[in-house]
Each structure stands twice: as C-alpha cells, then as structure tokens.
Design goal:
Helices cover 51% and strands 8% of the residues. By secondary structure, the protein is an alpha+beta fold. The chain has one domain: Cytochrome p450. The protein has a four-stranded mixed sheet, covered by helices on one side. A two-stranded antiparallel sheet has the order 4-5. The protein binds protoporphyrin IX containing FE (HEM). The site of protoporphyrin IX containing FE has 23 residues, from helix 12 and helix 16.
Length: 492
C-alpha cells in the first residue's frame, strides 16, 4: 500500500513541481542530471546511504556541485576553503537550517536549537543552552568530576566481564546517559534506572526505525501518516515517552532543590520561563536535543575508538605507554594532563576525522550571497560534506582512508600546529558550531584515558575480526552509526 502511495505522491509531485523544474535553474554549478521532476532523490537509497552517494558525486563533479531534490536545487561543498568560507568567514550568510519541510525532524526536535532557522529565538536558545551546559571556568571542573566518577563505574562494569567477550554498547550508553542527566538536572537530583531506558528507546528508534523508505516518505509527504506509515506511530510513541519522562524529571528536579546554587541546564531553562523568555515547548526542545546529542554522538565516537584499539594494537600500546608515563595506573586523569598527552590528543582527533560521523551538515543561506565564485539566492540549501573534506588527500597527505594518529604529530611527537590540522572540523565552526564541543572533548579524553589505564582491548574472535570500516556503519540521512560488536577488555 505504501509503495503505491509513494508512486501516487511522486505523480502529484510531478505536477506540482513541473513549473518549478522548468524555470528554477538558477545556480550555475555542475551536478548529476537526475530524473525528471524528482531529481536525484532516488540516488539516496542506493549505494549504502546518502553519505556514500555524496562522495561519488564529489569525485565526479568536484568540490562544489549541485543536486536537485523535488525541484529544489541544493549545493554541496566538499573542500576546506569553501566550507571554511561558508561556516566561518561568512557565517551569518550560511547560518540557516533547511528543515521547514522535514516533517519528522521538525516534529521530534521542534523549538530547540539544532533545527531552528537563524532567528532571534535560535540565538536566545543557543545562549541559554551554552550557559546551562557550563563548559567553561568552574563549570569544566564540575564536568571533569562528574565524568570521572561515572566513568569509574563503567570501568568496574567492564572488569566484571572477567576478560570474556561482551558488547560494550549498553554500558557506554548508560554512562553517557548518567553524565548528561547530571549536566541537565544537577548532581543532587538522583539518577533512576528508568532514565537509561528512555535513552535506549529513543536512540534505538533514531538508529533503527527512523531510516529507510518509510522515513523518507513521511519526511517529505507528511500526509502518508493517514495511510499507515509505520514511522508515524513510532514518532508518536517517542513524543509520548519524551513528555512523560521530562515532566517527571522537572518534578524530580524541583523536589530535590539544588541547595548548592549550582546553575544546571534545567535551572537556566526554568528561570527563563519565569521571566517569560521560554515556553514549555522550548524547554522540552532544548532538553531533548542536548540529551540525544549528548549521548548519541559521543557513544558512536567511543565505539569507533574501541574499534581502533582492537584493530591497531601498536597504537594502543603507544597510548598505554603515554598514560603510564604521564598519569600512571592509579591516579584519575585530569584536564591538565591533556596537554602532556599529544598521542592521545592525536588519536582523538584522528577518530573524529576518520569517522566523520555527522555528515553532511545541513545549512541554508539567509540572504543572497555567493560561494566559490558562484551566486546563491537566499534560502538555498547548502550541505557541507565533512566526510569528503576529512578524507581529502590535499589536506591529509598520508592516505586519508587509513587510521593514522601520527599524521597530527611532528617528528618530536608534539601535536602539529593548528594550521596543519585546521581541516578537521568535526564539530562544525562559526554560528552553528556544536553546542557540546567542550563537553564532548573533555568526556572523550577522560573516558579513553581511564579505559586504557585499566584494559587491553582485543578482538572477541580473532579469526573473524571486526574491522574499523566506515562502510560497515549504518548510514542515516546525516550520520554514520556503528553497529554493535563484541570486544574483550583484559585487565592490565
Ligand atoms: C563527539 C561528539 C560530537 C560531535 C562529533 C558533534 C558534532 C556536531 C556537528 C558537526 C554539528 C553541526 C554543526 C553545523 O551544522 O555547522 C553539531 C551541532 C550541535 N551539537 Fe554536537 N557534536 C558532538 C557532541 C555534542 C554534545 C555532547 C552536545 C550537547 C550536550 C551537542 C549538541 C549540539 C547542538 C545543540 C548542536 C546544534 C548547534 C546549532 O545548530 O547551532 N553535540 N554537533
């Protein structure tokens, strides 16, 4: 039934877009021809997912090209110069978000930060979110303490596996969930086991159920929800679960009043509501974004790091050596250790580069502007192909498709100057830079260090090793997510 609907909607679309298609060819860039009226949309379900199709086109059409989706021209940038120009040099011109026609994304993440267009509401929400995460000054000390405490708990859980193969994903997901709940609600509000269940359910839906043809169908043709599109009922369940959980969290937060005066994200949001500057929808929107982004991204990056450790024992032993030398085995890591551990910094940087798990990033022009010498009208969608840029030989000379942390080190083992690693923009840059960059980098450093202080990581089945191969990751519309695997964590 739904496939017939897909056909019917395509036909309707043909009629609706005919005028647009005939007249709207305003952007003078090369690009794939596509099918009449639907453009290149069908290509996104081929070749393992959108990210790989974008790489193929970039190889063929170059750094700057356009595609066509249902009559709309979309520009894709793949090289550092134009991505930097758009994100940083003319940040305001490219700071819009193109989600007004994306039904699922809009429903699930409305009123927050990520999907908001470049409006005053966006700026106010981002400022509030940033204040609430407290990633600077005293706030960072608090993040270090609560991260270290929770990571030690995960280390204990890994030890309980007694060096036998196990799947680390749920333990890691619980870890990030515990940390982000502390960040949201403050340390005085107790964590409950159900909180982890909520995260698991949402992330599973995002990673597994919000994919494939039904997802794209309802995303573009919301009326298919009246004809049994299964994604619609998944979304409704997710929203119900979100509203119930967040209402309970806010009540719990109010119950365990934060005597310390510590300003947590919830406290900031509730205070803004009292001042008439925030709605309930806004509170839920910002909470769900920080919650999901706070778990999903770092969780996937950690899976990548563990895959790297299992596959490259020489890299792992260099990290062991560095940790033993700088911190030893019994002391908890501190942020000040980071600058003394260039090999760890290089390995984190390489993990972010090699994986490029958020790609492409979706932007939109906020005025008539231009990029790489090409004029773009206001409201043009511009996608930044971070994976392409991070795997470009021009910026990463030693085989960009290999995992090589030492590419970021000089001959004395120091981190190369910023100029030589500037093309790693895993958190974006400029107006729409990631809100949780400092939190994410801090947690990754503390977690990876504590894990390697305590374990040797090995393949669960050396005869059938699990490779660190991005092609094996699940490709969503703008993400690459690791599938589950088993690992051995041998105590050191
Ligand atoms: C390894 C971890 C992470 C990576 C690689 C990552 C990467 C990114 C990227 C590439 C963007 C889009 C930038 C753009 O569109 O120009 C982004 C945006 C965002 N990230 Fe992250 N992120 C991570 C962790 C986090 C964490 C821990 C949080 C929150 C606690 C977070 C919250 C956000 C938010 C709210 C935005 C939207 C910002 C905006 O639209 O202005 N992220 N992130």
């Amino acid at each position: 039934m739904l496939y017939e609907l897909l056909l019917a909607s395509t036909v309707l679309c043909l009629t609706y877009n005919i005028y647009k298609y005939m007249v709207k060819k305003t952007i003078k860039l090369p690009g794939p021809r596509g099918l009449p009226f639907i453009g290149n949309i069908h290509s996104f379900i081929q070749d393992g997912g959108p990210v790989w199709q974008v790489q193929k086109w970039a190889n063929k059409y170059g750094d700057t090209f356009k595609i066509n989706i249902l009559g709309e021209e979309i520009v894709i940038l793949s090289d550092y110069d134009s991505i930097y120009e758009a994100l940083v040099e003319r940040s305001n011109d490219f700071a819009g978000r193109p989600f007004e026609k994306s039904y699922v994304t809009k429903k699930l993440f409305s009123h927050g930060i990520f999907i908001q267009d470049f409006t005053q509401r966006f700026e106010a929400n981002k400022k509030l979110g940033s204040r609430g995460l407290k990633q600077h000054g005293d706030g960072i000390g608090r993040i270090v303490n609560l991260s270290n405490e929770n990571i030690s708990q995960t280390v204990k859980e890994f030890k309980e596996e007694n060096g036998q193969p196990f799947q680390p994903h749920d333990k890691l997901q619980n870890l990030f969930c515990r940390i982000i709940i502390c960040v949201l609600l403050g340390e005085n509000t107790p964590y409950k086991e159900d909180d982890g269940e909520f995260a698991r359910k949402w992330l599973e839906d995002i990673e597994v159920n919000l994919r494939g043809p039904f997802f794209y169908l309802i995303q573009m043709f919301p009326w298919t929800r009246y004809f049994g599109n299964p994604v619609y009922s998944t979304m409704n369940e997710m929203m119900k679960c979100r509203n119930k959980t967040f209402t309970e969290w806010i009540e719990r937060f109010k119950h365990y009043k934060q005597e310390s005066g510590e300003r947590t994200l919830i406290k900031e949001l509730l205070a803004a509501k009292e001042d008439g500057k925030m709605t309930d929808d806004g509170i839920f929107g910002i909470m769900i974004e920080t919650f999901i982004a706070g778990i999903f991204t770092t969780h996937t990056t950690t899976s990548g790091f563990l895959l790297a450790m299992m596959n490259f024992p020489d890299i792992q032993s260099k990290l062991h050596e560095e940790i033993d030398h700088v911190i030893g085995k019994d002391q908890l890591p501190e942020l000040s250790d980071r600058e003394k551990m260039p090999y760890m910094e290089a390995t984190i940087l390489e993990t972010l580069r090699y994986m490029s798990m958020i790609t492409p990033i979706f932007h939109k022009t906020t005025c008539d502007t231009n990029i790489a010498g090409c004029d773009l009208p206001k409201n043009t969608q511009v996608w930044m192909n971070l994976y392409g840029m991070h795997h470009d030989k021009r910026y990463f000379k030693h085989n960009p498709d290999s995992f090589v942390p030492s590419r970021f080190l000089d001959s004395d083992g120091h981190l190369v100057p910023h100029e030589e690693r500037k093309a790693v923009l895993a958190f974006g840059a400029g107006r729409r830079v990631c809100l949780g960059e400092v939190l994410a980098k801090t947690r990754m450093f503390l977690l990876f260090t504590q894990l390697l202080q305590n374990f040797y990581f090995e393949q669960a089945d050396p005869e059938n090793p699990v490779l660190f191969d991005m092609r094996k990751f699940i490709a969503g519309p703008d993400t690459l997510v690791a599938t589950k695997f088993k690992i051995v964590a041998k105590p050191r």
